[in-house]
TrEMBL record:
The lineage of its organism: Bacteria, Bacillati, Bacillota, Clostridia, Peptostreptococcales. Substrate binds at R142, M315. It catalyses: L-alanine = D-alanine. InterPro entries: Ala_racemase, Ala_racemase/Decarboxylase_C, Ala_racemase_C, Ala_racemase_N, Ala_racemase_pyridoxalP-BS, PLP-binding_barrel. This is Alanine racemase. One of its GO terms (cellular component) is cytosol.
């Protein structure tokens, strides 16, 4: 199954997404946390590059309680495709856009009475009850306010608003070390307890991302918020879950060149052929999200063999040395990122070579390469 018919895939450079693996990973996660903990599947940044619209049904069919994005723009794209899916915005939405959140039936992260009032007022126009989760800062200092008597009072007043459903309360771990995590946990739980003693109640208390939900069962609470884990990224340290990488990235050779010993390749002739060589042009570049600093480190797999990238990576194309690959031909498939079983570069390896993390490697793949979904 693909999202596009073959004649609609207008490029050889494609991102392949294995929906079967996504579902497998979701099942592992749900079995791990059990039925009392809901799974909010994080699909921000276009589903970490896998394509949020393309993977949403598989995640919902797998039992996700929410699909979470970072921005209203991301939520609206999903809403236009899926009128009925429960959507959550993890990030800040500017005040002027909060009525749109209510109108679109999206659950919003908030941290002030001003935001709550705007959403409560939006009920009058739309007739839709606004749903929110309150963000508590426990040290990360990114979004939310630190626990204080004033914030407790403010949250109680928010909970009393007539047309607002305060469905949840959450915080986010900085994952500094066990001791700091525990401090954040205690701060959060004590604050929630205080709020409950003041008469507030929350269906969902949550704090765990991918790493925290595997490593620390105690932090799973009513809901977890995995992103990377669903896509098969193994970032945890203490616990273990055999999730599988659901994304691969491939292209096809557009042209072969016979290059004489001493001749240069690509901008500035940064690479010169040490001997007579066969060079393959590949139609992907840094504008397809491939890290430009993988020059001299990157490689693709062609006919089961490693072909090192040579010369400077261009925006839309790059070159690989295929001299030692018997039978190499124009049109041959080249695996850019794979699961490693064919010797291909995994997301994990790419992240190490590029000096970044795995989420960055996949989330930076832009919309340009078509997504092809297989089951
Ligand atoms: C991105 C994000 C997550 C998911 O993070 P992963 O490390 O990919 O699991 C969870 N919670 C919040 C608030 C986030 O911004």
């Amino acid at each position: 199954m693909t999202d596009k018919k073959d004649d609609q895939i207008l490029r050889d450079t494609i991102v392949k997404v294995d929906l079967g693996k996504l579902k497998h990973n979701m099942k592992l996660i749900e079995d791990m946390v059990g039925p009392t903990t809901a799974v909010m599947a994080v699909v921000k940044a276009n589903g970490y590059g896998l394509g949020a619209v393309g993977i949403a049904p598989a995640l919902m069919e797998s039992g996700a309680s929410y699909l979470a994005v970072a921005t209203l723009s991301e939520a609206v794209e999903l809403r236009q495709n899926y009128p009925g899916y429960p959507l959550f915005i993890l990030g800040h939405t500017p005040d002027r856009l909060l009525p749109v959140v209510v109108e679109q039936n999206i659950t919003q992260t908030i941290f002030s009475m001003e935001q709550a009032k705007i959403m409560d007022d939006a009920y009058a126009k739309s007739g839709k009850t606004a749903k929110v989760h309150i963000k508590v800062d426990t040290g990360f200092h990114r979004l939310g306010k630190m626990p204080s008597p004033e914030y407790a009072e403010e949250i109680c007043q928010i909970c009393a608003l007539e047309h607002l459903d305060v469905e949840g309360i959450f915080t986010h771990l900085a994952l500094v070390n066990d001791e700091e995590d525990e401090k954040q946990y205690d701060l959060f739980m004590n604050f929630v307890e205080k709020l409950e003693s003041m008469g507030c109640s929350f269906k969902y208390k949550h704090m765990a991302d991918s790493i925290a939900c595997v490593d620390f069962p105690k932090y799973r609470l009513d809901m977890i918020r995995p992103g990377a884990l669903i896509y098969g990224m193994r970032g945890f340290h203490k616990g273990f879950l055999p999730v599988e990488q659901a994304i691969s990235f491939s292209t096809r050779i557009s042209q072969l060149h016979q290059v004489k010993a001493g001749e240069g390749v690509s901008y500035d002739y940064m690479w010169k052929a040490p001997k007579d060589s066969v060079i393959a042009t590949l139609p992907f570049g840094y504008a397809d999200g491939y890290p430009r600093n993988l020059r001299d480190k990157g490689y693709v797999i062609i006919r089961g063999e490693k072909a090192p990238l040579v010369g400077v990576l261009c925006m839309d194309q790059c070159m690989a040395d295929v001299t030692d690959i018997p039978g190499v031909s124009e049109g041959d498939e080249a695996v850019i990122y794979g699961d490693g079983s064919d010797g291909s570069m995994t997301i994990e390896e790419a992240s190490k070579l590029a000096g970044t993390n795995k989420n960055d490697v996949i989330a930076r793949i832009p919309a340009r390469p078509p997504r092809v979904y297989t089951e």
